[in-house]
Amino acid sequence: MDRMEKLKEFLRTEPHDNFVQHALALEYIKVGDDNNAKDLFEQILIRDPGYIGSYYHLSKLFERLNDIPSAISWYEKGMAAAKKTGDNHAYNELRAAYEELVY
Length: 103
What we know:
- The protein is mainly alpha-helical.
- The protein has one domain (3-102): Serine Threonine Protein Phosphatase 5, Tetratricopeptide repeat (Alpha Horseshoe).
- The chain is 81% helix and 0% strand.
- It has six helices and no strands.
- The model has no long low-confidence stretch (mean pLDDT 97).
């Protein structure tokens, strides 16, 4: 069983496991399945806005899809969430990517 199948199997028993959904979304990106990756990242962040790591990857995905308004929006949401949780490292990473895109 490959990595993607193992992750899907985990999700069958724990369908709302953020870590597993995030890992599966990254696997989808690796194989070029951006739509499924986007759906998983959005599900995570709608359910748990404090799952900071997914903001960066979702924003980068939108950049790759040339949906700049969505990328900017998700970077901004991520920066706000990182600031709220006191995750300065994530905040700085999101801000740097945001500024690179916007300026």
